[in-house]
Each structure stands twice: as C-alpha cells, then as structure tokens.
Amino acid sequence: MDPRLGDALDELAAAVFDGEDGHHRVAPLFARWDDEAAPLRDEDPDYPRWQVIRTDWALCDALAHDAAGPGDTWLRRLLRGRVPGFRPGPDHAALAGSWVGLFEVWPGKTPWLRDCIGGVCLGLGDRAQLEPTGDDGPVALWEARVVVEQGRARLCREPLAYPLEILKTVRDRQLRRFAPGGRVPSIALLRRARLRWRRAERADASVMFRLIED
Description:
The chain folds into 2 domains: about 5-95, no CATH class; about 100-214, no CATH class. The longest helix has 18 residues, at about 20-35. By secondary structure, it is an alpha+beta fold. It has helices spanning about 5-15, 20-35, 45-60, 75-80, 90-95, 165-175, 185-200, 205-210, and strands spanning about 100-105, 110-115, 120-125, 140-150, 150-155, 160.
C-alpha cells in the first residue's frame, strides 16, 4: 500500500465531510450505502476498515446528494476547486482515476491483479506478502481501491480479503454478462454478501455468496 494515497484520501474526506456541514453532506450518502450494501454494525468483523471503505465510496464513487449530472462526486468537486478553503495538490489529483474492484491476485516476481468485475489486468506496484495455496491459481481475492501509476496498480488502502471459495461463482456470473438479462456482480452486492458471511458463524462462504446471482 502507498501511504501517500491513503493520506490524500483522508485529507479529501476531512475537507468535505468534517463538521456540521460535512455531516449534512455525508448522511444521505451513508443512507444510500445502507440500501445498496448493508448498514454497518459496531460489532462487525473488520468494522474500522468498513468505515474507511464506506467513506472512500461516499467521497469517490457516490454522486453527491445534490449532483447536477453524471460523475458529480465530492472528489471531483474538490479537485476542481469547488469546495471553499481547500486547494488540491498532486497527490490528491492522482486519485481522480482511482477505482474499486474485486481482484484476483496472481503470484510472481511481479504479482498481477485481475479485476473480476471490470476485467482489467495489471501488475502490482506495491510489495505484498502472499501465502501460497498449493495450486496454480490465484492466491488471494481482494477488494481494493487502486490507481495506475507507471503502468502498475498502486493500492490506496490495505486490501480487504474475500474468501477464494467464491471465485467460481463470481467468474460464472461474469461470463454470463452478455447473455439476455446477464450482468456482472456489483461491488455493492459483493460487500453485502461478505458482511453477511462474516456475521454468520461457521458459514460456508460458497453458499453465502450465491446471493450475488439473484
């Protein structure tokens, strides 16, 4: 992970979501998160990381509550100087092209990431401790926000691991996206499935994640 990018995300979020005005900006976005993914609970496993993921989503991905059109996010408003009192710098601008994916992680001298949702394949520009699985497939499945720098994917935050047992379900769904009525699984549905899986004791991940086929 590149701390520079995480720090830039924190600075942007503070500029727009801190204080009373910030609360009014973020509250409707968090309500939308609750509808699309699931409300977070204090006792949730990985709760601090989910808080960060939700805030990054509200900043970078969700349309502002008073959006004037497509792409009108708080991130873009900040980078365009539309939030008084904040002047973006180069590290902030680097986040303009960031996106979140569910990535297969393939080992090697340079590990490779394959986005299960978008299909993008990129070498990983960060160091990573990868545990072998004993076969020739991917060694991890990560939800991660990335940017591309010098042709490599850079992690904006520590990735959130998903169970490898769901990979077949995700791949099958992706292959059916061109069939009538087919569509790729959304990151919101994947988040909902992971939250439910981690809340259920001793749950079979492959069963819990089948809801993404609905």
